[in-house]
Amino acid sequence: xxxxxFTLCFIALTITQKAQAQVWQLQDPKFPYKTTPYDVFCPNxxxxxxxxxxxxxxxxxxxxxxxxxxxxxxxxQSWENITFPHGEPGYxxxxxxxxxxxxxxxYVDYATGNQLIKTxxxxxxxxxxxxxxxxxxxxGHFFNDVIGVTLGDPDSLGxxxxxxxxxxxxxxxxxxxxxPAPMTDEVGFSGFYEVVGTEIWFETxxxxxxxxxxxGHTWSVFDGPLPMAxxxxxxxxxxxxxxxxxxxxADGSSPVTSLHRTxxxxxxxxxITPLDNGWWIVDIEPxxxxxxxxxxxxxxxxxxxxxxxxxxDRGSTWHTIDNTSLxxxxxxxxxxxxxxxxxxxxxxxxxxxxxxYTGSPLTSLLRNTTLLNLDVNISPNPTTDNVTIALTxxxxxxxxxxxxxxxxxxxxxxxxxxxxxxxxxxxVRALPAGSYSLTIANKHGLRTEKLMKL
Length: 454
Description:
This protein has 454 residues and is an all-beta fold. The chain folds into 2 domains: 18-359, Methylamine Dehydrogenase, Chain H; 375-453, Macroglobulin (MG2) domain (Immunoglobulin-like). It is built from 1 helix and 32 strands. The strands form 8 sheets. Strands 28, 29, 30, 31 and 32 form a 5-stranded antiparallel beta sheet that branches. Strands 2-3-4-5 form a 4-stranded antiparallel beta sheet, with no helix packed on it. Strands 6-7-8-9 form a 4-stranded antiparallel beta sheet, with no helix packed on it. Strand 2 (36-41) and strand 3 (48-55) form a beta hairpin. The longest helix has 7 residues, at 361-367. The chain is globular.
């Protein structure tokens, strides 16, 4: 059975604070239907593609309806809706894009079969790629404008994997003697894959991970940390593989998650499960140009309980930076650029929304830039009841104040928009005695101090 994949860049961190500050810009992708923009692919800071759909609860699984597709080429200032280039019913597998003009969609059309299609004019025209996948097509990905790979489920010969070195004009099936044989009933997951440079990883239904170091031409396989289907949530710039497993009720509630990483492609695994693990780990995203990974979690999509966490040590420790936003799948072009779709609860009749991250105090948190050199006073410290944070600057900036406990749990968050000074008092009387982390950040840098509660 396939798993629905949403490869999202980011959701807005919309905070009700002074002047109703928002560090994300709310944007309308101009979808013709009220669908969630699940998949957003942003290859650079100005271009992005987003696709949305609805699950067809009246039909069999693996069917979606009302597909919608849009793109931006100006950093999200404007969005153009594009007629979805496939018939329904069917199943969207993956989206890959090099820029705002060139993109590929892998799709299972239930009337005409597996298809990989390409556009070079921003979706005005699409051409069918001459790659014939007899099994279920899971992924079509291009590393650059000439080198690409298509991943399919096993047929009688093994996993169907095809590569191209001429932009998709011709395709060659990878010799199955170079691909580890599938196990009984083993299939891939649509869109569950990760790419770093020339390397690509994809996971299977029995928890194995296939890896190619050379654009998909040769392959090896390794077992996940547990003998069951995992979720391949990330591969970072150091090629550390992260996998998560979540047990939950049938409706997704009461999740219990474990998180594992390997730096040697499965030879050894480290259990880095957070102490606070009553969440689904939806995604972990390495932030390009930094050593930071950022994770989105929720306690079940219907609960409204979502968290955003960051880690500077490859997941050994985490700090929650937001617990008010409906975060799904993440993607960043860099520490200052990102796009996202807004999760829609059942019965939500508002417009479909996309958010554009355009730089904020989050930039410094992602970069871990400890350069905030301002007149800041934190007193009293130690404290028994209240602590006041006072700041004075020569220029107006946006600021975040974060109070986290020793385990990274977010205790309080405050935002200020376009100010040169502020004074904020936190009531900490109800907190247990101990050490806390107090962070002040703007887009240029951050300052973290230890706060002692007596």
